[in-house]
Specification:
Blueprint (H helix, E strand, L loop, with lengths): L3 H4 L9 E2 L5 E3 L14 H6 L13 H10 L15 E2 L12 E2 L5 E3 L2 E7 L4 E7 L3 E2 L11 E9 L8 E10 L5 E10 L13 E2 L10 E9 L4 E8 L5 E6 L11 E7 L12 E2 L2 E9 L5 E2 L5 E7 L2 E2 L1 E6 L2 E6 L2 E3 L8 H10 L3 E6 L6 E6 L5 E3 L3 E7 L5
Parallel strand pairs: 5-20, 25-28
Antiparallel strand pairs: 1-2, 2-15, 3-12, 4-5, 6-16, 6-20, 7-13, 7-18, 8-17, 9-10, 9-16, 10-11, 11-12, 13-14, 14-15, 18-19, 18-23, 20-21, 22-23, 24-27, 26-28
């Protein structure tokens, strides 16, 4: 007996080829010599290119994004036939409600980036895959440190389903960094849900830190299917897939996101690794009647955990940057006089705190954390003072 998503093959105006998991279909390859600027709208759709081509008088940024996406030749022989490997239980949906700060930004233990409210049918962006390494924070309870950078539609501000695709950047408990591309159409699982309500890895679409990837997600065919287009700008490999919707997907399109995440519900299950900055560019979302938005129109989200804010997010026109909270090394201050110890600690962007006898002739007898310990900037260094003659 077929499930709903297997029997409801998407009705789209382009050819679909089944993949190795039910409900997911391969979109057409871009033919050799195809010119997206000269092609008719019907020809673009026929070849699985579902983005509206900006008109000549469109916003210059929209034209620039289109031109950047097609500044590279996408050859039919570089189209990947993705091998899809579901990861049951591994998810990227927001499991816990975020908190809004006085400045209007949001914090959670899971998402960092930009979230734009509206009525959207597509979102896209380009970013360089970050390098990751073991953090000074504890491993997650699932082991090691884990993160994902992705582009998505829905998932908060009233919707709990989310169509998304991106890169997992994981560091094992032994300190080995691993990278894999994935997609997911999360909707609350029920009997018969497609396997892609959980993360689906794409191991034969190789990705590495320092490579630039482009991703677009969208609701297509009058909100009857989902579409994901994924391209590695560095290698030239790409693919598109069309998905039959999970039976309880809402298609509301009330948010678009550009996110760096601690997955699987976030901290403490997943603990963020240290990562190089994630910079989304060409970040735009589109909706009905030629409406468009970008991170400058949205809300900043940061990840908090272990008693501190772990990320720092800045956004701007068509860009969002997620930085890992900066760390520093604790200086050696034992036997320094109080003035020099204060200067050394503050020069490392740390906060001094003293106990004991505080006088002009005081000196440091002990400190915590120990010298050469890596800590977050802004952390406190405890120093015990004595004003007795030094031994």
């Amino acid at each position: 007996m077929s499930t709903t998503y297997e029997s409801a093959r998407p009705r789209v105006p382009y050819e679909l080829t089944p993949t190795n998991i039910p409900g997911a279909y391969l979109s057409p390859a871009i033919p050799d010599g195809f010119d997206p600027d000269a092609a008719s709208p019907a020809a673009l759709i026929k070849h699985g290119l579902l983005w509206r081509r900006p008109a000549a008088d469109a916003h210059p940024a929209h034209r620039a994004i289109w031109e950047h996406a097609f500044s590279r030749q996408w050859r039919p022989e570089d189209r990947v036939i993705p091998r899809l490997e579901p990861q049951p239980g591994r998810t990227h949906n927001l499991r816990h409600e975020a908190r809004q700060a006085a400045d209007g930004s949001y914090t959670s233990g899971q998402w960092a980036g930009s979230v734009v409210a509206g009525t959207w049918t597509s979102a896209m962006g380009m970013w360089t895959i970050p390098s990751v390494s073991a953090s000074i924070d504890p491993q997650g309870t699932e082991g090691g440190w884990n993160s994902s950078s992705w582009v998505g539609l829905d998932g908060t501000y009233g919707s709990d389903d989310v169509l998304q695709a991106g890169i997992e950047q994981r560091v094992t408990a032994s300190g080995v960094a691993e990278y894999v591309a994935w997609y997911e159409w999360w909707a609350p699982p029920i009997p018969g849900s497609p396997p892609y309500v959980y993360q689906v890895n794409i191991p034969n679409f190789p990705v590495s830190p320092g490579q630039t990837v482009f991703c677009a997600v969208g609701y297509v065919s009058n909100h009857t299917a989902g579409n994901i287009y994924f391209a590695n700008f560095t290698t030239g490999q790409y693919f598109g897939i069309t998905l039959a919707p999970p039976s309880n997907a809402t298609f509301s399109g009330n948010t678009a996101e550009w996110i760096m995440e601690a997955p699987d519900g976030g901290i403490p299950t997943a603990s963020l690794p240290t990562f190089t900055p994630v910079v989304f560019t060409d970040a735009v979302c589109c909706g009905p009647n030629d409406t468009a938005g970008n991170p400058a129109d949205g809300d900043i989200w940061n990840i908090v955990g272990y008693g501190k804010t772990i990320t720092s997010v800045t956004d701007g026109p068509y860009t969002a940057t997620i930085d890992y909270a900066l760390t520093t090394v604790v200086p050696h201050v034992v036997e320094m006089d109080v003035n020099h110890a204060t200067q050394a600690v503050q020069a490392a962007n740390l906060e001094p705190r003293f106990t004991g006898a505080f006088t002009p002739r005081s000196w440091v007898t002990s400190q915590s954390p120990a010298p050469d310990t890596t800590v977050y900037q802004g952390s406190t260094v405890e120093m015990h003072l004595s004003d007795l003659p030094r031994p």
